[in-house]
Amino acid sequence: MNTLLHGRLTGLLALGAVIAVLPAFLPNNFYLDIAILAGFNAVVCVGLNLLIGYAGQISLGHAGFFGIGAYASGVLVGVYGWPPILALLTGAVVVGLLAFLVAKPILRLKGHYLAMATLGIGIIVSIVLRTESGLTGGPDGMMVEPFKIFGFELYGEKVWYWVVGVLLVGVVWLSLNLIDSPMGRALRAVHGSEVAAEVVGVDTARFKVLVFVVSAVFASVAGSLFAHYTGLITPAKADFFKSIELVTMVVFGGMASTFGAVVGAVVLTLLPQALTVFQDYQQIVLGGILMATMVFMPKGLLPTLAALLPARRRA
Amino acid sequence: MFAELLQYLLSGLTIGAIYALAGLGFSIIYNASHVINFAQGEFIMIGGMASATLTASGVPLPLAILIGCGGAMLVGVAVAKFAVERARNASTVTLIIITIGASIFLRGVAELVWGKDFKRLDAFSGETPIQVLGASMQPQSLWVVGTAAVLIVAIGLFFNRTLTGKAILATSHNRLAAQLVGIDVKRVVLASFALSAALGAVGGAVVAPITFSYTEMGIMLGLKGFTAAVLGGLGNGPGAVVGGVIVGVAEALGAGYISSAYKDAIAFVIILAVLLFMPNGLFGKRGTERV
């Protein structure tokens, strides 16, 4: 237990240290911007990883929750003049309720039904955002007001970098605690054998629902802040491909590994920037990388690397 | 009033036939290997693109369809052999990502080979609409529905009458037992991918004159095929066919009477409602799990 706690703290401190020193190595705002985008993706992925890695379920609609959060902030602040923090919380509550209502009956089932349901939610959300152009600006998206709190306005890459950095550390800390709680241990049992977990009295469906709701709320909060940061939000941020991208980040970095999810988010946010040199071959390279990673490293990047370095892992 | 309804039903049946073929493809692969193959839509795209571009360069239509079909089968077998089979023991999430990777890869290759623009394929037997009780119907719709019906019956016979078909069924029921009685399980998986690819490609070719062919045509067709398969109870072949027709007809009715902007959402609203209230799909059986 002591070593576990220790390992958890070390990882968190390492993450904090990386976030703290990184700006010194980023020459300009362009790189800072990419780091911020990677941070937003990482926040969503850490939540999604709880669902995929620890509850053994897949969501193909998390971008939909991200989109609801983003548009809640955009519409409530921009059109109705709400305070940004209230809009953010409203988005999070709506997404949490939606996730709860959907998950409750569906997570009692085995197999791919949550994948289907979340896929459906994601697509419906993105179609609504595209169609209700009176509120959402339609396919072109909408401008979002800056985030103001107590008369203080969050502005510029340098400020947002620290906002996202602190948010990421907080989300990772929450996840690590959740994983190591009695509930988290029960979840790992669920992932191992659902029937066995039920036999020893674990209410598996309840845990899965809770994790799904938590991961959806993470996505919504990230979406709200993302909208305020970029100042422009489009339905593409909520569509099926964005959902796939998020799942890919989690699986690429390493399922059931919180830091893996962070690494996956960072690598795959950078990848398209690097792939622009391939131009016409971009999709082929992206698809190829996806397949190759999954075929040759089915556990994902970080766990595979960790297995190569057994000595360091024990430290 | 009635003519309008009939019009919607006819166009719903046409597109529903394609969803049915795609759904059947999902079911066949799911049964043989427990993989949800998100590249199913790309088989449709390959069929549509190959037949449109080949006929444009002078190849006779039947030959063009045959080549597209063969190409899709090769691609299907390649996906099964080089990606899915190698990750045999990986988790379902990993397998889903592999097939999604395959579909992105295939779309990229298709864009490179055929370009991004829409390709036209002439209707197989003219464009003079047929009048049916006041509703008008494109002759191509008859081709779509007829071809789908023939393929579905053929698949049914294949699974119930031929040794290969029975071997695939046996593998889907119990992989280990099938292996013990001498069925080459690996070949069954390859055969199921080839079969699904062929179904998709032929579907893509017959629907191309109605929808046009483009490299992204498979995305929505594939996803709706997946809803058809889940609606009918995943792994239930006849269920997937009925699911496809239901999705197609509901979509046409919804687009006609409610809102055409929300046409693409209707399939997913139905599937959510069904999952919330009839969690095993319309025809799925409540299975007991062996521990």
TrEMBL record, chain A:
Subcellular compartments: Cell membrane
Gene Ontology molecular function terms on file: branched-chain amino acid transmembrane transporter activity
Principal localisation: membrane
Residues spanning the membrane: 30-52, 59-79, 85-103, 112-129, 159-179, 209-229, 249-272, 284-309
InterPro entries associated with the record: ABC_transp_permease (IPR001851), LivM-like (IPR043428)
GO CC annotation terms, alphabetical: plasma membrane
Membrane topology: Multi-pass membrane protein
Identification of the protein by name: Amino acid/amide ABC transporter membrane protein 2, HAAT family
Source organism of the structure: Azospirillum oryzae
UniProtKB/TrEMBL annotation, chain B:
TM helices/strands, residue ranges: 6-30, 65-84, 91-110, 141-159, 188-211, 265-283
Record bears the keyword Transport: yes
Organism domain of life: Bacteria
UniProt keyword terms in alphabetical order: Amino-acid transport, Cell membrane, Membrane, Transmembrane, Transmembrane helix, Transport
GO molecular function: transmembrane transporter activity
GO terms for cellular component: plasma membrane
Topology of the protein relative to the lipid bilayer: Multi-pass membrane protein
InterPro entries found in the cross-reference section: ABC_transp_permease, BCAA_transport_permease
Statement: the UniProt record of this protein carries the keyword Nucleotidyltransferase: no
Subcellular location: Cell membrane
A biological process term (GO) from this entry: amino acid transport
Major location (coarse): membrane
PANTHER family: ABC TRANSPORTER PERMEASE PROTEIN (PTHR11795:SF450), BRANCHED-CHAIN AMINO ACID TRANSPORT SYSTEM PERMEASE PROTEIN LIVH (PTHR11795)
Family designation: Belongs to the binding-protein-dependent transport system permease family. LivHM subfamily.
This protein's name: Amino acid/amide ABC transporter membrane protein 1, HAAT family
